[in-house]
Every structure is written in C-alpha cells, then in structure tokens.
Amino acid sequence: MASNPLSGPISVARRVPIGDTGLEIHPLALGGSTFGWTLGTEQAFDVLDRFAGVGGSFLDTADSYAAGRSESIIGKWMAARRTRGRMAIATKIGHHPDHRGLSPADIAASVDASLERLGIERIDLLYFHGDDVAVPLEESLGAVDALITAGKVGAIGAADFTPERLIEARVLAANGLPRFQAFTTKYNLMERRPFEGAPELVAHAQGLAVMPYFGLANGFLGGQVRRRADVRHDARGERQARHLGRRGHRVLAAVDEVAFAHGVQPATIALAWLLAKPTVVAPVVSASRPDQVDALVAAASVELQRSEIVELDRASE
User: Fold this and answer.
1) CA 172, 173, 175: angle at the middle one, nearest 5?
2) I need a surface site. Which of 59, 97, 103, 226 has the fewest CB within 10 A?
3) DSSP calls for 140-202
4) Which among 263, 161, 143, 149 has a CA at the least distance from the CA of 203?
5) Average confidence (pLDDT) over 141-155
6) Where do the NADP-dependent oxidoreductase domain residues begin and end (predicted)?
7) Residue 293 has pLDDT above 80, yes or no
8) Is residue 22 part of a domain?
9) Which of 207, 137, 225, 222 is nearest to 175 (CA)?
10) Which CATH number does the domain housing residue 27 bear?
11) Is residue 236 part of a domain?
12) Predicted pLDDT of residue 10
C-alpha cells in the first residue's frame, strides 16, 4: 500500500477568521484554476500535497474551472489523502456551461453538481461568480438561504460585484436573507485602482473578508519575467508582458529590495503587501509546481515594516 505523503509533521500556521462564518484558515488560499487545465491530476496532487504539508488549509476553485475538472481533482485528492477535515473549500457558481447565471434553479443545480464533484456534503464558502443582473438579487440570495438551511452551503461570498450591488445585498441581508461574508476581486501591486476606492471602502464598512485573486499579477510579481525574452508565448505570458515597462521594473526593484532584507522570495513580499492591507484576509494564488508553494505560504509569516509598505505603495503608484 502506498504511503500517505501527508503523514509527516505539519507546521502549525497562523489562522485568521473569514468574517462571521466560523471558519479559521491559514491566510493564503491555494487557487485551483490551473487544475485540469495546465496541470494534470498527478501534478495537481503534488501541489496540493505540498500545500497541505506546509500548513495550508483553504482551497479556492470554481465550477467553471476546466468545466468542473478542477473541483473533481480536488475532490479526488481529499478522498485519497483524507484531508477534508483539514481543508476549507470555497467554490464559485454562475459560469459553468450547464448552469449559467444565478437563477434559483441554476444555483440549486450548480451546488449539487459541485458537491458531487468535490465529494463533500457542504461547501464552506460559496461565491456568486460575478453578478447576474437578469435575476433579482433577492431571488438568488433566497435560493442560497434554502441551501444553507439544508446544510449544503456554509456561507456566501461575492466575486467581482460592484459596490452598489454589495450595498443592495447588505440591505437584503438586513431583512433576513444570507449576508455576504467574503469578497474576491483582482488586486495586486500592479493592479490597484479597480479595488482601491469604493470597493475597498464598502468591503471595509461591511466587514467583508477580502480574498484578492491574481495576487501575483499572473506571476509577474514572482520576478521571473523581467524582459521580453523571458515572456512565454501563451495567454499567461501575454498578461505578464503587459506589466513590462518603467512602472513594472520600478515595482520589481522595490519588491526585490524588501525581499532581500527579509531573506525571502519576491512572491512572498508581493503577497505580504496584500496581507498588510486591513481588509485582506487571504490572497488566492495558484502554483504550477510544488516548489513554488513554500514562497506563497511564507507570506503569512512576514511582517513588513511601515517604511517598506510605503516604499512598495510609492513604487506601484
């Protein structure tokens, strides 16, 4: 019988709460967007093994990632390694080709399909994967209320909702419907403006646990791409290439300097900068190899000095 790669010692990591959900997690979420797409099952298992082995405890996926294969891989891994009790699971619904949108019928069908793929009885945190303006928000929240009552969903979050819709949702919650506990949106040192401002103010006022995705700007802030010759000829490479330029080099130089002072990788500092923001609870970051995981998880152990945060802020303006 094969040995369990997770049977050895596990580091005890710092834990943070997700709103009022009762969930406490290590403040770095492993994103599953690459599972079943650029990573096969065995490669994904290797990354997941490493994440769990260094104290990671929060997995973020979506029913639309690789048309559901990401959820299936995570489900197979949890069953094989018996890690369900140690992992909080967040998934998103609304974009799967079989169940698009947030109508009550689509929500119910999406959740049942996700539960089956993940092999679990309850989704800890269910995100609306973008807004669906064709469906009254009251109806969507009502559908989730029934799923929470049935024990299929623990808590709810919003992905890329406008500040206005978040405020509308809070008004509906005041009248008894489920309240958004978390908010996920794009936010990193290279892409600050869309979040900073009204979305950040609303998230702070509502006590939302912010889980930024693309925390490394598609890997650019990991520091491996510094000139055009470093860019891979694929979709991710194209997104990284957009950041090459004076501002990008200025940000990487500032990140390098802080990383050197702390004796860590640039990716660690880029994520530590996010964690220094008052609304941010856990950045969502993907890894393509097990050896990348350590630098991601290490961000929770780095406490940036005020002067370092100011320098990173200034470089990225």
Assistant:
1) 70
2) 97
3) HHHHHHHHHHTTSEEEEEEES--HHHHHHHHHHHHTTSPPEEEEE-B--SS--TTTTTHHHHH
4) 161
5) 98
6) 27-316
7) yes
8) yes
9) 137
10) 3.20.20.100
11) no
12) 41
Range of 155's domain?
16-218+279-302
With tokens 């094989």, the residue in question is 80
For 221-227, the CB contacts below 8 A with 24+ separation are: 221/188, 221/189, 221/190, 221/251, 221/252, 221/255, 221/266, 221/267, 221/270, 222/265, 222/266, 222/267, 222/270, 222/292, 222/295, 223/252, 223/255, 223/256, 223/265, 223/266, 223/267, 226/252
Q: Tell me which long-range contacts 132-135 makes (C-beta under 8 A, separation of at least 24).
A: 132/94, 132/101, 132/102, 132/103, 134/101, 135/101, 135/102, 135/103
Backbone angles phi, psi at 106, to 5 degrees: -65, -40
The pLDDT value given to residue 265: 96
Rounded to two decimals, what is the model's pTM?
Answer: 0.92
Evaluate whether residue 311 is within a structural domain: no
Query: What is the residue-averaged pLDDT of the chain?
Result: 92
Q: Based on the structure, what is the number of domains in the chain?
A: 1
Q: Each residue of 86-95: pLDDT tens digit?
A: 999 999 999 9
Q: What is the pLDDT of residues 99-134, one digit of tens each?
A: 999 999 999 999 999 999 999 999 999 999 999 999
Sign of torsion, CA 49 288 315 203? negative
* Residue 2 is assigned to a structural domain of this protein: no
